[in-house]
Amino acid sequence: MPFRGGVALREAYRRAEARGYAFMANNIAESNTLVGLLDAYAGAKSDLLVQVSPGAAKFAGAGGKVAGLRALAGLVHVLAAPRPIAVFLNLDHFTTGEMDLIDLAIRERLVSSIMIDASKESFDENVRISRDVVRRAEGSGILVEAELGKIRGVEDEIASSDAFYTHPDEAVEFVRASGADLLAISIGTEHGVSKGEDIKLRLDLAKEIQAKLAKAKLSTPLVLHGSSGLLPDQVRAVIQYGIRKLNKDTHYQYVYARTACEFYKGHVADIIPPEGTEDDVVNLFPGGTWSPNKKVFDPRVVGKAIQDGIRGIALALLEQAGSGGQTLGDEEDS
């Protein structure tokens, strides 16, 4: 099934709300993480939502965010094509500094949704900026996610030492005024490495925000950033109170690094010359009896191990979200 845009993503969120599950929104910066995710989600028959941050675009584009965004979006579009699931792409934590990229993504229909992060601004300025992105996306079908409240920690190029909870009454006012399709709320999670047992989730806030939006007849899916440290019971609890998208980045970064670390630790003798051997990397060790083992140092070998590691953790996480077996691919008119 080909990459799907915002119209299909809106339907996917509608189904998630009706059936009581959520989507893990999974950040990527290169192909190994994406392939692992695609393998996991296709095997579980779950629609997949991947995300690209400004920092990931800069990395993939060798310092150029435009090139990186096009490259990563191209990977998603091409690799999604043969999969029997719907695959969506979200711009994650884009700010006023990336309006040119936002316009590019809309104009070239690179993405399914855009998260504009103006949460550090005043309420009125946040509304103004978010509403501006909604206006820019008009007619494209691309959804817009905005954030109200502030989450502690570091996420890509966004950092905050403070946390401010989302006020339920402000949530209703914000959605009405901005026109945002999705609302990211702050209820106690943190960006980066955090431990679930140390996270004091304000489930009462999520419940009240969900109830007030429903009373106002606003069918707005809620989003939770900084969810990598949540325990399974915490994930199930937030889903119960309207969270339909949980962002995952740190989790995959750790699995990626650990898989590579363990692989290379197990093959040191195949890669590092033994004591007494001239360390002649330029000429690939022409003297002596030792040579590095290409069956080990070829980056495709560790890359495959990384893909398998990502696939394993992705399967566990999507099971927590309850999205297994849920795909628009089983509906011809979707």
In short:
The chain is an alpha/beta fold and 334 residues long. Helices cover 46% and strands 14% of the residues.
Which key terms come to mind for this protein?
alpha/beta; elongated; 13 helices; eight-stranded parallel barrel; two-stranded antiparallel ribbon; TIM Barrel; 334 residues; single chain
Question: Helices, strands, pairings?
Answer:
Elements: H1 6-19, E1 23-27, H2 31-44, E2 48-52, H3 54-60, H4 65-80, E3 87-94, H5 99-107, E4 113-116, H6 123-137, E5 143-148, E6 153-155, E7 158-160, H7 168-178, E8 182-185, H8 203-215, E9 222-224, H9 232-240, E10 243-248, H10 250-265, H11 268-271, H12 294-297, H13 299-321
Parallel strand pairs: 1-2, 1-10, 2-3, 3-4, 4-5, 5-8, 8-9, 9-10
Antiparallel strand pairs: 6-7
Description:
By secondary structure, this protein is an alpha/beta fold. It is 46% helix and 14% strand. The protein has one domain (6-258, 296-330): TIM Barrel. Strand 8, helix 8 and strand 9 (222-224) form a beta-alpha-beta unit. Helix 2 (31-44) crosses helix 13 and helix 6 (123-137) packs parallel to helix 7. The chain is elongated, with a radius of gyration of 21 Å. It starts with 5 loop residues before the first helix and ends in a 13-residue tail after the last helix. Mean pLDDT is 91; it is low at 158-162 and 191-198.
